[in-house]
Specification:
Number of strands: 19
CATH superfamily of one domain: DD-peptidase/beta-lactamase superfamily
Strand order of the largest sheet: 3-2-1-4-14-15
Mean pLDDT: 92
CATH class of one domain: Alpha Beta
Structural class: alpha+beta
Helix content: 25-40%
Low-confidence stretches: none
Number of helices: 17
Radius of gyration: 27 Å
Shape: globular
């Protein structure tokens, strides 16, 4: 064989070797990725041969599959439309799935290892047993109320969120983000139409696809004072301890005075901690925060759940919808020491403090539940396709204990005073003890303020029945008052669903 042919032969052998190695690489390491790829048409057609399981709330299915015939046999449908969109998500043909549809995809699709018995049976019967059913914790009344009240808020806010949880268990009672979207066009088997609908939503400046209740962080304003008050109660301060106040106070190293929302709020030189919470005294909490120090405030915030990067809301033992971490932010001067001005602003929930609505609800729930913060969850039960077998039933568990029982009692008393005689009166519910904290947070130099409310409701026996956070983005004047009103409506709806009077 002459040299040129020999060289060609060597090149061909090398190419065959590379091809062989690539095939083995695909079969050994990439097979699952390609098999489960959204672009694998064969797998996609096979998936749509099997009827997908329902996602249900209170006995009603809000994600169902209908026989539409054609190449892709079953069409996903969402009867609740916008109301449940951010919880359920959507399962489209040609774009990524989201929400519970994504986190419980294998069970809903019938491909979970838990449902292998059904697949083995299908091999002998030739049938295609449908996927399993996912039952959620949501209260239909609370979810509907949260959605309608946000949509029809009285201050004209176009963006916001509301979330309610059962303080005793962590079960999510309502979860709504505003604006919402209709998931039905996104699951159309006309992939061109589905892509067009998705692109319109994605390009909307109000970001309707964003789950603001879990994934949006904004300055919480005065709701953060509950964290500062907890740190104070654990460091020698009582409800009746006098703290410095006044109409304005300028932190050391800063020429910018901190003022109260109105001249009538704590104008005296000193007020009790109880009065400072009830009236939402900025000057009092700014000075209290500087006195406590950044480390104590950051530590207490962390104990409530700030800085947690891995929290999810779905099942209790694995996965779920991702939750953005709430942050206390930077409180240091250029040299690395604490900046009193930054600390003072942070102590009233401004500066770099950022919080999700879920974190706000968890703070209120911890106070209502005697200091015990339960892990939040959405998935109550997983049922077999024929509903005869339960493969998962939620068993509530504690996530952390941010404060002692005594501190929780003191915080609870002060938060009740906020609703009884302070800034949160519009959250009151007849026949129930309601506590809370309003918050107004600056959103920018030329934009309206955000309005917040965190709170809880106790029955006549003192048992916590609901905890809530409502956030109205750039709501302007009256935003926190309206957030409190909406929160009261949501908790009252959750109570009705639970059989309360």
């Amino acid at each position: 064989m002459n040299a040129p042919l020999r060289r060609v032969g060597v090149v061909v052998m090398i190419l065959f070797g590379l091809l062989f190695a690539n095939l083995n690489w695909i079969q050994a390491y990439k097979a699952d990725e390609y098999r489960n790829s959204d672009y694998n048409g064969r797998v996609q057609v096979d998936e749509y041969k099997r009827k997908r399981g329902n996602i249900e709330v209170g006995g009603t299915a809000y994600a169902i599959s209908k026989d539409a015939g054609g190449r892709l046999r079953y069409l996903r449908s969402y009867p609740g439309g916008e109301m449940y969109a951010h919880v359920l998500g959507y399962k489209p043909v040609n774009i990524a799935d989201t929400g519970i549809e994504r986190t419980e995809n294998r069970f809903l699709a019938g491909t979970s290892d838990q449902l292998i018995g059904n697949r083995v049976k299908d091999m002998f019967t030739g049938e295609q047993t449908g996927g399993g059913n996912v039952l959620l914790t949501l209260s239909k009344n609370a979810q509907e109320t949260a959605f309608k009240q946000l949509q029809n808020n009285q201050v004209g806010a176009t963006r916001g969120a509301a979330i309610a949880i059962d303080p005793r268990t962590g079960a999510v009672q309502a979860l709504v983000s505003m604006p919402s979207f209709d998931p039905n066009p996104l699951v159309s088997h006309d992939t061109g139409a589905a892509s067009k609908a998705f692109n319109q939503l994605e390009q909307d400046p109000d970001r309707p696809l964003a789950n603001r209740a879990l994934a949006e962080t904004l300055p919480p304003g005065s709701t953060f004072k509950i964290v500062v008050a907890a740190a104070a109660l654990e460091n020698g301060v009582t409800k009746q301890t006098k703290i410095p106040a006044g109409q304005s106070w300028t932190p050391p190293t800063s020429g910018q005075p901190i003022r109260n929302a109105a001249d009538s709020i704590c104008p005296q030189d000193q007020v009790t901690l109880d009065e400072a919470v009830t009236e939402s005294c900025n000057t009092g909490f700014a000075q209290l925060g500087v006195r406590l120090g950044a480390d104590k405030i950051k530590d207490k915030a962390r104990q409530f759940g700030f800085e947690q990067d891995d929290l999810t809301v779905g099942q209790l033992n694995e996965g779920g919808l991702p939750v953005a971490a709430s942050r206390t932010g930077d409180m240091t001067a250029p040299g690395g020491s604490t900046d009193p001005a930054a600390l003072a602003q942070s102590s009233i929930g401004q500066r770099d403090v950022r919080m999700t609505p879920l974190q706000g609800a968890l703070i209120a729930a911890s106070v209502a539940n005697g200091g015990s913060q339960m892990r939040p969850y959405l998935v109550k039960q997983l049922l077999a396709p024929d509903r005869t077998t339960s493969y998962y039933t939620a068993k509530p568990r504690e996530l952390r204990q941010p404060v002692s029982g005594q501190v929780a009692d003191d915080l609870r008393d002060m938060m009740v005073h906020v609703v009884e005689s302070g800034t949160g009166k519009s959250a009151a519910i007849d026949g129930y003890t309601v506590g809370g904290k309003t918050g107004t947070a600056q959103s920018g130099p030329n934009t309206p303020d955000h309005g917040w409310f965190i709170g809880f409701a106790l029955d006549k026996n003192g048992t916590p029945v609901s905890a809530v956070c409502v956030e109205l983005e750039r709501a302007g004047k009256g935003g926190s008052h309206e957030a409190a009103r909406i929160a009261g409506r949501i908790m009252a709806a959750a109570i009705r669903d639970a059989g309360g009077r």
